[in-house]
Design a protein that fits this description.
79 residues; 5 helices; 0% strand
């Protein structure tokens, strides 16, 4: 039997460090998240700084990869 102990707060510190390392939302990250889905898409939505963009991102969570990709191109297209 293997026993493990976790310091309280240590897990939160690890999550915060991982969050800081993620690049800001951009087209490439969005397309990667669309392809991967799941946690990668959720992380992208959580990192959106604009509440309208975040809401639209969350609305796409259960959509197809292609619908997510279309949204990525529309959201991050160059003007």
């Amino acid at each position: 039997m293997i026993a493990a102990s976790v310091e309280i707060g240590k897990n939160e510190d690890l999550m915060e460090a991982a969050r800081r390392r993620r690049p800001k939302p951009n087209l490439n990250r969005c397309l990667d998240a669309a392809a991967a889905g799941g946690v990668m898409w959720e992380n992208l939505c959580n990192d959106m700084t604009n509440s309208t963009d975040a809401g639209e991102c969350w609305d796409k969570t259960l959509r197809s990869e292609q619908m997510k990709r279309n949204w990525c191109f529309n959201r991050f297209k160059k003007h």
